[in-house]
Amino acid sequence: MKHRNILLLGGSGFVGRHLAIELAQRGYQVTLPCRRPHRLKELKVLTGITLLEANILQQETLNDLCTGHDAVINLVGILNESTKARFRKIHVDFVKSIVAACQTHKIKRLLHVSALGANQASGSSLYLRSKGEGENLIHTFGQKDLQVTSFQPSVIFGADDSFINRFAGILKLCKGFFPLACPNSRFSPVYVGDVVSFMADSIEQPHSHGQRYPLCGPETYTLKQILQLINQAQESSCHILGLPDSLSRLQAIILQMLPGKLFTLDNYRSLQTPSTCDGHGTSCHTSLSHFIRGLSTQYNKKTDYDRYRQQLKR
Ligand SMILES: NC(=O)c1ccc[n+]([C@@H]2O[C@H](COP(=O)([O-])OP(=O)(O)OC[C@H]3O[C@@H](n4cnc5c(N)ncnc54)[C@H](OP(=O)(O)O)[C@@H]3O)[C@@H](O)[C@H]2O)c1
Questions:
Q1: How many domains does the chain have?
Q2: What is the per-residue pLDDT for 298?
Q3: Confidence class of residue 85 from pLDDT cuts 50, 70 and 90?
Q4: pLDDT tens digit string along 26-66?
Q5: Which of 240, 209, 247 is nearest to 225 (CA)?
Q6: Which residues line ligand 1 (CB under 6 A)?
Q7: CA of 202 to the centre of ligand 1 (A)
Q8: What gap in Å lies between CA 144 and CA 103, rounded to an integer?
Q9: Whether residue 100 sits in one domain with residue 29
Q10: Is the domain of 230 the same as that of 131?
Q11: Which residue minimizes the CA distance to atom 35 of ligand 1?
């Protein structure tokens, strides 16, 4: 194992927690700095994972964290901007800081998670353009000093994700109609276990250097079809009403003004780009429909299924 000591940035998030466990199980030593380590109870008990409280956005802190590591993995990302966290700061400036810290500490291996459809020039949203810029930046530097691999997943699902679970929560409460924006947006949802396994395999693979891997699941769905799958699993009687484009946009304008920003204009713009590989990406094998059906068969009573999801979130 050439890259034994790994600095995992963004390891406190959904994908990061799964990746930390996968890496620890494969014998890597993982350092996971984050803002709120006390929230990661499930990782605390594992040998091979060191949790630290740190502000990784500070260059000095990041430099210190890089000491003694052979590889860096970056999963830091945001879906919505806030006054403190702008897309440029998180997806571009932070990536520059990582590259600088790797150069200072002569770290030669860098893995980076971008997003399917990310494109600096033609991305349909600020999210996708900033993700594309960060990815290009990392690969430009990668040609010189760093062995870089980046990953472009479609939407990622798992028992503790925020995509399926968020809609499951909303549909459970819905008694009549649910007005769904962008119902025809297309996705090839990919399972978190497949994503982290593919990433962990790549660490030691020389043929992955300089590569950008689109990651998709085996099936393509519209957003409305995904919600229908969730509805079936939950035995919900909520009727999903797909909104036309003008009302989808209006919904985004209204919801982005409310606390929590459930849906923003930038999210709406991201949904204009299909999140599918269309035969060009790495197809991971786990099927969303089997996954959802599996859960509902195992926990066939609605209350059991809800309890199961709550347990996974703890
Ligand atoms: N999940 C998907 O469906 C999906 C699809 C395509 C691409 N991606 C990309 O994959 C990566 C991981 O996604 P995820 O679902 O695991 O996201 P997530 O659960 O939201 O985790 C994001 C991570 O970034 C960290 N982070 C965000 N803002 C930060 C800030 N200002 N300072 C320090 N840390 C900050 C979070 O730290 P805290 O825990 O402290 O907030 C967390 O560790 C992201 O880059 C995302 O864009 C995800």
A1: 2
A2: 47
A3: very high
A4: 999 999 999 999 999 999 999 999 999 999 999 999 999 99
A5: 240
A6: 10, 12-16, 34-36, 56-57, 75-78, 85, 90, 113, 115, 153, 155-156, 163
A7: 20
A8: 10
A9: yes
A10: no
A11: 76
